[in-house]
Every structure is written in C-alpha cells, then in structure tokens.
Amino acid sequence: MTHYNEAIPAAPRKPDWRDKAACRSDNTDRFFHTTPTRVQEAKGTCFGCPVMYQCAQGALHRGEENGVWGGLSEGQRTTIRKKYKIHQLQNLDTVKTAVDNALRAELHPERTLRDLWDQHTHPLPGGHIGWHGPVGSFSFHGIPVTPKQLAFQIDRGHKATGIIRRAPECPVVECVNPRHLLDNQERIQRRRAAEEAAVQAAAQEQHAADEALPEAG
Ligand code: SF4
C-alpha cells in the first residue's frame, strides 16, 4: 500500500496523477515520522516526485494533519491553510505558488551575498568594478539591498551606516568597488582625520616659521 493509496482508501478509480506518485510503491510509515531527519528523508522523495503539487493540493483540501504530503510538513500545510481560502487552493497555480514559497529555502537554498556579487559584477579599467545585476534595489532574503550596500557589506563584514557614496577620488559614476565607497561613518572619520592633519600641518608650519625668526637683540 502506498502513502497515497492509504489516504484515499481502496476504491475503483480511473487512472490519474496518483499513478505517477514517487511513493506509489513506498512504505507508508516513512512519511509519518516526526524526527527532523526522517521528515527530510520523506520530503526528499516528494521533491523528486512528478506530481508533488497535485499531491499537496489534495492534502490541503483534505486537511491532512499528519505526515509529509506534497513535500510539505504538517506545519507548512497549516501555514498555507491559514493564508489561503480553500476555494483559492482549487487553482493548481495558486497551490504551486504557495508550495514554492513554503519550500523555497529547501528547494532552492538561498545564494549568499558573495554569490550575488560574483554573478553580477565585472572589472572595469583602472581598478573600478561595474554592476550588471538588477537595477536599483533588489530583494535578498526578503530585505531590499542596493549594489553599493552589497559591496560594502561583503568588504567590511557589516552593514553600512547611512548613505553609501563614492569616495571623491573615484571618478567612475557606476563604480561599485567597495574600496571606492564610503558610508556616513567613514566619511565623518575621513573628515575628522583630514581636519586633524590640517591642524597638525599648520602647527608644524608655525613651528618652522618660529624657528626661522632671527633671535631678538
Ligand atoms: S509528493 Fe510525496 S507524498 Fe505526494 S505522491 Fe509524491 S512522493 Fe507521495
């Protein structure tokens, strides 16, 4: 007896998508374990199943409370059922969207910031770096990120403070070389360092001028 046939007890039926179930000759118990490792094993079968969405749709409609169905755990099905009205789940495309969203992290492990950077940047002459990824801000783990923020975070290992601007010495408008970028905090530090250097230079100049004066008398 398969996982699927158990949920829909033996009854004469016409051939349908259930005949393509990856679990059709599987041990039913496999899909009803509760330890995370065993749940993931069952999900692994579903992720390779050609009728995963149809199976998920059926389980959502029947209100299956236990086990893995259509790649979804009990908690994931509960979340979907809270989010969608039952009539919306009659549409297979809606089910696909709901399932894909629920399983995104499992089916498509998120790329890292470094992956995005490597994929969307290219070298420019003079040590500058160009960006050919999404224009403006884009979503990463649901958080909007700009190319400059991405560059800054990868290079500095932390998020920027305030607005990121090109350093004055970088003349290339589209450059995202993180070493050519400064956030608010770094601009303030730079300005203070420049002011201190100017004060020191003025003091040294004054000292040199004093030294050069002929002694009175
Ligand atoms: S999605 Fe999983 S539970 Fe559903 S039919 Fe396929 S293998 Fe069986």
TrEMBL record:
Chief location bin: cytoplasm
GO terms under biological process: cell redox homeostasis; negative regulation of DNA-templated transcription
Requisite cofactors: [4Fe-4S] cluster
Keywords annotated in UniProt: 4Fe-4S, Cytoplasm, Disulfide bond, DNA-binding, Iron, Iron-sulfur, Metal-binding, Transcription, Transcription regulation
InterPro entries per the UniProt record, alphabetical: 4FE4S_WBL, Whib
Compositional bias ranges of the Low complexity kind: 196-206
Protein residues bound to [4Fe-4S] cluster: 23, 46, 49, 55
Cofactor binding comment, as recorded: Binds 1 [4Fe-4S] cluster per subunit. Following nitrosylation of the [4Fe-4S] cluster binds 1 [4Fe-8(NO)] cluster per subunit.
PROSITE patterns attached to this UniProt entry: 4FE4S_WBL
Annotated spans, Disordered: 196-217
PTM entry text: The Fe-S cluster can be nitrosylated by nitric oxide (NO). Upon Fe-S cluster removal intramolecular disulfide bonds are formed.
Chain ranges of the 4Fe-4S Wbl-type domain: 22-79
GO CC terms, sorted: cytoplasm
Molecular function GO labels: 4 iron, 4 sulfur cluster binding; dinitrosyl-iron complex binding; DNA binding; metal ion binding; protein-disulfide reductase [NAD(P)H] activity
Function according to Swiss-Prot or TrEMBL: Acts as a transcriptional regulator. Probably redox-responsive. The apo- but not holo-form probably binds DNA.
UniProt-listed HAMAP family: WhiB (MF_01479)
Similarity comment text for this entry: Belongs to the WhiB family.
The name this protein goes by in its record: Transcriptional regulator WhiB
Organism, scientific name: Streptomyces yokosukanensis
Taxonomic lineage: Bacteria, Bacillati, Actinomycetota, Actinomycetes, Kitasatosporales
